[in-house]
Amino acid sequence: xxxxEERDDMGRMGVLRLICSVAFLAVLASNVWTMSRxxxxxxxxxxxxxxxxxxxxxxxxxxxxxxxxxxxxxxxxKNKLKAIGFAEWNVASRTxxxxxxxxxxxxxxxxxxxxxxxxALFREGLQVMSLYVLASVTVLAFALLAVFRARDPGxxxxxxxxxxxxxxxxINPSKASYSVPPTMMAxxxxxxxxxxxxxxxxxxxxxxxxxxxxxxxLSVNFRLPNLFLAIGYCLYLAGAFLVVRNRETxxxxxxxxxxxxxGMAPTLIANAVNAGSPFSTTYGxxxxxxxxxxxxxxxxxxxxxxFTLLAISAAWTAWLWRAGRGRARQAxxxxxxxxxxxxIFFMTHPIFTPYYIIPIDMLSLxxxxxxxxxxxxxxAANRAAFPQPAHx
Length: 392
Prior knowledge:
Oligomer: single chain
Mean pLDDT: 91
Number of strands: 2
Radius of gyration: 23 Å
Helix content: 55-70%
Largest sheet: 2 strands, antiparallel
């Protein structure tokens, strides 16, 4: 039976969890109120193209994965462009975020199909609000899970602060691109499963790492650069196999790879349909430019909230490496590899946006949060099982 002190601690933790839950719900309500007043015609070219993909799915079903501009036979795209004041709305070669594919002699949309498909799940006119509300509710669920996994006031405070910040980020900078909210959902789930993988690797490791691969693969369908979220995992799993060289490490790497390929299958199919090959890109221009270190891009990141989140991720990674051992350190090594790869890519990409490194920030932070909670819970259990003798 629990002692009086233990019951008292449990009661205090219950009250604190309730307070955190109410705070989360208040922020969610504020988010929903704000999102309900957003316009789907805010003059952003990316918005028009994502909504066009959604329209194609609603009009043609799965065949809407073909984004050939000739399928704008109902003038949906032209009307959207006219609505935002685009002067050359009737010139195919000038259509924003569309690329000419010489081999197929057609103009197609450059983005992968996932964001459009997600928007297509909701009624036209309410698509953006509905997607953002769904993503916010999902983030709320993971934040509540973190709060209820906390076993001490310090862990609870950490989970509460992070949860409030994660909910706020669904407004800013997530509003900058419709591809961000579904990515945020995938990153939260992948972060939880990644931390859990290092706890249950011997028991459920194959399933967990396959699900992580699947989630990251799915995120590629929302933003193609999300593929870089997988690189740290690939390096870690390949390194583990090279060091140990056994059947277990091979199967874990293979499971992740298979899950990743299954998850990103819609993008591979879309590439085959629109660009002629699963491994041909529909992107063009600056998006496929060679890496280049540009001072203005670096400065833009340094003064942006993305870099603050990145700095927190790096500091948290360093702290957990020192505080943890065994499984915790392995999780930290994976996070560090992923941060390094993504940092190199985006800091050498020739353009800046306020959401480019948000996915790696959030995947890293969710992983670190749940890994830290697991570490603190394990230490609390050890202290309870092996209490220190009282000193005279």
